[in-house]
Each structure stands twice: as C-alpha cells, then as structure tokens.
Specification:
37% helix; two-stranded antiparallel sheet; Glutaredoxin; alpha/beta; disordered N terminus
Amino acid sequence: MTVGIVLVALIGLLAFSGGDDPEDGVTSLLGGRAPQVEGMTLAGEPYDIDDRRGSWVLVNFFATWCAGCVNEHPELVELERWGAERGDLELVSVVFNDPVDRVEDFFAERGGTWPVLNNPAVPVDYQVAQIPETFLVSPAGQVVLHVEGEVAAREVIAVIEGSR
C-alpha cells in the first residue's frame, strides 16, 4: 500500500512539475524585477543592486575554473570601459563556487575593477544552473537580457542602445 501511495505521488509530481518548458526557470526572470544582489564585495565594500537604480547593471556569474568565464572576461572588461565612458552601465560579478584568493588573483592578472561578490544566495535567487551566465538589468530594475554561456559586449551594447 505504501509503495502505491509513493508511486502515485511521484507520478503526480512529474506530471505537474513543468518539465522542459522554456518559460520555466531562468527565462521567467525576463521582463520581471531583478532578484536582489547584495553583500560585501571582495574589496570589503557593501553592495546593493537597488542603489544602482537609474543605471544599467550587468550581473555576471563566473568562476576562475570555468573556461567560458575566462574566454568572456575580455568582453566584460570592454563593457566596463564602454560603461564608464557613457556613465550608465555598471558591472557586478558573483563568484560561483570558487576560492576568494583565486578570484582576487584572476582580476589582478586579467583586469576589471567592478564589484565582485561571494554570496552563495545570489546564484540561487537567479536560478543559475551553469556558468558563465549573465543578466542585464535595466535602469528600472527589470531583467531585459539573459545570456547562458559567454556574453558578447556587442550584444549587451545593442540592447542598451536599442532601448533609447
């Protein structure tokens, strides 16, 4: 009897769990309010995405052991430079399962002065499944772009310039 109840419960769970619908999971963040990104940066400064309202914010999830993250890093450096020239794009990176000392060495060697957080709750809130993964948040606080895999500077720039 117990096995039958468990089997029925499992079948019900599978039937109503949503499956592979592309509207499930991360894509459901598109067009909605960006989840919170807050914590202490590796530099010891407090960070809160809500303090960046009025600016575009690129939220990037990465690790130094991730080949795609290493490959895309020059694109992020380019976006940091582009955003600084315009004054309306900021970047924040969130460490995904990587020792802080490695991350600090990575940025020292490869460049990038944007805030870096090591808050394990943030990837959960953004439903990050695999890195690199990047979200562009509008000045109003909405997720307007989601990139699974390596992000290209031209893609982010096109979205920002297309919104004007």
